Amino acid sequence: MSSSHSSRLTRRGLVLGMASLTLTAACGNGVGNNNATMIDARVNATLNEMYTSYPNTIQIAERASGMLVMPLVTEAGFVLGGAYGRGALRINGATVDYYSAVKGSAGFQAGAQQYAHVLFFMTDAALEEFRRSSGWAAGADLEYVVKEQGDSIAADSNTLRSPILAAVFGQAGLRVGATLEGTKYTRIIP
Length: 190
Known about the structure:
Layout: H1 3-28, H2 35-53, H3 56-63, E1 66-91, E2 94-121, H4 124-132, E3 136-137, E4 143-147, E5 151-152, E6 164-173, E7 184-188
Parallel strand pairs: 4-6
Antiparallel strand pairs: 1-2, 2-6, 2-7, 3-7, 4-5
């Protein structure tokens, strides 16, 4: 095998390798796809459903500094479980970032469910802390305004003082008692 033939194969392999790497990168970077448009459409539909089904959330949304809307989270488990969903952070009605929600769990559990949820950031400080974090995790201190089988909790003055409020609704499936505790939210590029 000659030296020029060997280098031609190497150059050809390098060019083909770079071309495939570029195509692979382009597929995942959001260029030429409609992931953001699809997420925004689902967020709009989720907000419309929430406002119609739970009118108490309108007042909460009007007072919130921002809202993280997760239109569809799928949670499943058999001893070990997990959940995943994608959504958008809205400030003054406009999408500013996209996020994924991931949750893992262990213990006695079986079944699957899908649900939507909205986090209302009631203070600028809570919103800023969420946006600055590289991976924010929901804790047990969340105050729920819609939870379980769609029970609606009034938005009284005590509730509205909480830095972060949560609405979990639209549950479908065999698992009961959706909770956001332990869910980790990470900024994504759709």
